[in-house]
Specification:
The protein has 88 residues and is α+β, with helices and mostly antiparallel strands. The protein has a single domain, classed as RelE-like (YaeB-like fold), CATH 3.30.2310. The protein has a 4-stranded antiparallel beta sheet with strand order 1-2-3-4, with helices on one face. The protein is globular, with a radius of gyration of 12 Å. It starts with a helix and ends in a 13-residue tail after the last helix.
Length: 88
Amino acid sequence: MPVEWRSQIKDAVVGIAALAEPSGHHNVRAMTGEWAGCFRLRTGADRTIFRLVDINGEPVLQVLHVGPRGDVSSKYPVNGSAPTREAV
């Protein structure tokens, strides 16, 4: 993944994390089925799958996978145990 794409995805994730309600962002969609409770963020041709978790009473955006559209939710298990395409 080119450096500028990684930077774009990282900036988008940081921006989403700063929102009081990340699911309200126009590029964020709630996922269904086995991915219920997770969200996907569209950034260009890539998708970032994340969930909101509570750590010590603070909401934290946990990134599960980053990858090309169409592959990211079908290629990896929901539990997040598989490696991501590339760390952001």
